[in-house]
Write a structure and sequence with these properties.
- It is flat and about 35 Å long.
- Strand 2 and strand 3 (about 45-50) form a beta hairpin.
- The protein contains three helices and three strands.
- The chain is of the alpha+beta class.
- Strands 1-3-2 form a three-stranded mixed sheet.
- The protein has helices at about 1-10, 15-30, 55-65; strands spanning about 15, 35-40, 45-50.
- About 45% of the residues lie in helices and about 25% in strands.
- It starts with a helix and ends in a 6-residue tail after the last helix.
């Protein structure tokens, strides 16, 4: 049941163009060090919550710890 619901949700979620652009900056240009993605407020799109050129692991870890969860 849970897997079916997840698959149904994922079939309806789009990836924002910004996600692709920022990912390419991370992968190809190597200027972005990390990206944090999130679901949009309407749950219809994956968007970039934050990206950074700062490669500090502790900064990244802190951002993940403080991330808000969707209920």
């Amino acid at each position: 049941e849970e897997v079916h619901v997840l698959i149904t949700i994922m079939e309806r979620v789009q990836v924002s163009p910004e996600c692709i652009s920022v990912f390419n900056d991370l992968k190809l240009a190597k200027k972005i060090k990390f990206i944090i993605y999130k679901l949009s407020d309407d749950y219809k799109e994956i968007v970039v919550e934050e990206s950074s050129e700062n490669g500090d692991w502790d900064t990244f870890r802190e951002k993940l710890i403080n991330a808000q969860t969707k209920n």
